[in-house]
Amino acid sequence: MSNVIESNLRPCEDLAIEDLAIEDWANEDWAILVGARPAATLPLRLESSAAATSNTPDLSSPQLNASHDNGTVSLEPDMQTASIEDARGDRRQPLGGWAKRLLDLMVASTALILAGPILVLIPLLIKATTGGPVLFVHRRIGFNGKAFDCYKFRTMVPNAEEVLERHLSCNPQAAQEWAANQKLKCDPRILFLGSMLRKSSLDELPQLFNILRGDMSCVGPRPVVADELHRYGAASHEYLKTRPGLTGLWQINGRNMTEYSHRVLLDTQYVRTWSLRRDLSILMRTIPAIMKFDQTS
């Protein structure tokens, strides 16, 4: 990681996520704690010499080429060394290997069966209330820099990009909020039905099919677009070691209430301290987390 993250996140450098014991799941102590100060910490070690001037990782570090001609993201040579080559050399499989993949298949298959009626009802509601396409398909970056189509139920107006560009050009405060978090609390693109789907996270149910296809995992960093990966700075090589997740540490620890730099820290810690036991605990905590509607967009 770069000195940029270390400088900006110094208040969080003692942040650690406690190891979880299955036998303690009935007790609050088993929860993953963010902000706690146990004896052992996991500081982010940084190699870059860039100076920190913002609350997000350095965006001037090695650049990404967002071209997807061959289905992968092209990286500059120095970032290739720190990310793609590291992922291919030291870890030939995504984080967790076959054990994590087996858990993904079991959880996604079960969730699809249980959510079957909802998966039929939501498209009907979208068609009846707004018309247009049911799914929103967006290119995201996955394991080893491979681009894939990420599925969501459509929650925005059809011309969402035009509406966003116009809104940001006329509202400097919104432009600053978007630059900091890639999200808007008052987003003019979101439809009424879309707002309800987002607050309940039901808009992300189609990503269960991404999990079955092997593009995503049940637990991991949220999938990002190519330009957004800049915000990870030197931590991007950690992101590229695993499949993006439907849920993760960010979702159960504040979600949209946290700054993007904190999200990067959580994703990095997840990769560095991964265990199957932790994945199970995150899955268990996801349902109560998504019920906190005030923390969703």
Topology:
Elements: H1 3-8, E1 64-65, E2 74-75, H2 77-82, H3 84-90, H4 97-114, H5 116-129, E3 135-141, E4 147-153, H6 160-170, H7 172-181, H8 192-200, H9 207-213, E5 217-219, H10 236-239, E6 245-247, H11 249-252, H12 260-272, H13 276-290
Parallel strand pairs: 5-6
Antiparallel strand pairs: 1-2, 3-4
Helix pairs in contact: 4-9, 6-7
Describe the 3D structure.
- The structure is a single chain.
- The chain is mostly helical and 297 residues long.
- Helices cover 42% and strands 8% of the residues.
- Helix 4 runs antiparallel to helix 9 (207-213) and helix 6 (160-170) packs across helix 7 (172-181).
- The longest helix has 18 residues, at 97-114.
